[in-house]
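Why do we care about 3D structure at all? Because function follows from shape, and shape follows, mostly, from sequence. That is the central idea of this module. The next example makes it concrete: a single protein chain, its amino acid sequence, and then its structure expressed as tokens.
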Amino acid sequence: MRVDSLTLDFWRNYPHAQLDFAPGVNVFYGQNAQGKTNLLEALAYLSSARSHRARYDRDLITFGVDHGFLTGEVWNGARAVTLEVRLARAGRRQLFANGVRLRSGAELADSLRTVLFCPEDLFLVKAGAAERRRFFDQHICQLRGRYAAALAEYKKLHEHKTRILKDWPEHPDLLEALDDFSLRMAQTGAVLIHYRAHFVEKLRAHAPAIHAQCSGGRERLELSYRTVSTVSDPLAGSKAIFQGLLEHQQTHRQAELDSRQCLTGPHKDDLEISIDGQSAKDYASQGQTRTAALALKLGARELFYADSGQWPVLLLDDVLSELDAQRRDFVLEHIQGGQVFITCCEEGDFPSARRFLIREGQVLG
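And the structure:
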């Protein structure tokens, strides 16, 4: 997969920009706060309809303007596709592929898959479980449309159940619907756990080897998926997982009523990351944390390739400057193949790369 061109209108600090890309390495360089990361954000949005920095789509639109537009000319390995995003400050976004309106953002991944690594990914290792669940969701949604649909439904069910638990003492009649929401959450949650467990199993075939190479063979990365205790085998079929979720719900029902919180389900899942047998969250150094996060992202890239036979577009946001010489050389060697976008402050030495100087929301070179 590759992006041949990108057009932005009223996207972040770009009133208008049009860029044509090389099929290999593309470098956005310039001083800080000029708009380099905004371009990577736009490329990632074309594959998922999600921003890694903005909570709301309206935050992506240039300040003082009501609408923003994004267009990418993409080659998906079989045909050329024009992807379009139309954002409105007041109203719903619209997504199109070759002029046909898409029902959801998950459909964009049929034409474009991306893997983004940015400085915030250090939180993937050091922060709470929510960051690692976001890692699951970002990548599995691009791989499996059924997962994306189940995730969207689960979030709505969780929101409704949470509201019931919060309000039931004042409105006891709400409890009549509680078990129905719990049942549906168990059914949908079983789908999420099934895909997450298999994703981690496949990731374990790639990320530890990448980590070992990047660290010069001095460290051992281990990954383990953690879900509710009654799901003894998350790699089992959805039916068995569903039964385990039901059991967990039943044993926690009174606790949920008492605490007025939703205490059970895959919204509590985690990915345990350890280095040489110790928790990376608790004990990893800054350098180890960066290497582990990079290994997870490059491992996901390898997994995408194994799944489809095509490299996803790799987006590296100000990453190389934070690595020592050994790790930097490893990354540059490891990303051969596929299209890559890199942001940095200096033009740098990237053989055969197409370079773009970015200054105050303008593309100067």
